[in-house]
Amino acid sequence: LGTTFRWAASSAAFLLQGAFLFLAFNAPTPKSCSLFLTLYALCTGGHSVGFRPRYFETAPHLAGLLSGYGNTIASMASAMGPVVIGMLLGSKEGEDAESDDDDDERWNKVAWLMLTAALVGVAGAMGLQGVKHTKQV
């Protein structure tokens, strides 16, 4: 499979993630929300179709090192996700933690943050298409 296919698969995975997140946050029932979140999770596998082979294409002799750095950065971002969401959903100082007044507004912030991350992923995947591999002598 060529680089165009991998680029398209990676971009489509990010776009579908954004679409399923949007649908999940606007789902009318808990069952439909669960379905959309499941489909969102299934789309996460499509990212590596475009990114992983790029390590080997860019620098075959450093593919393992680049893959390790890439995994480390991705893992740090995954670890920070719950922290950031906790900060967005946490109660304000002096406010009752059980108060539901701002619940919808707080979850909307989480939704927009996640959608923005998916769009940044699309931009990154599209940027991969413009990078040309040069052969070393």
Radius of gyration: 18 Å
Number of helices: 5
The secondary structure category is mainly alpha
How many strands, what sense, and barrel or not for the largest sheet? Answer: none
- Helix and strand run: HHHHH
Overall, the morphology is globular
End-to-end distance: 25 Å
* DSSP, total strands: 0
Relative helix content: over 70%
Overall mean confidence score, pLDDT: 77
Q: Beta-strand percentage? A: under 5%
Low-confidence stretches: none
Please give the structural blueprint:
Layout (H helix, E strand, L loop, with lengths): L2 H23 L4 H14 L3 H12 L4 H27 L13 H28 L7
What can you tell me about this protein's structure?
This protein is mostly helical and 137 residues long. Helix content is 76%, strand content 0%. The protein contains five helices and no strands. Helix 1 runs antiparallel to helix 2 and helix 3 runs antiparallel to helix 4. The chain is globular and about 55 Å long. 13% of the residues are buried. The model has no long low-confidence stretch (mean pLDDT 77).
Essential attributes:
0% strand, mainly alpha, 76% helix, 137 residues
Could you write a compact summary of the structure shown?
This protein has 137 residues and is mainly α. It contains five helices and no strands.
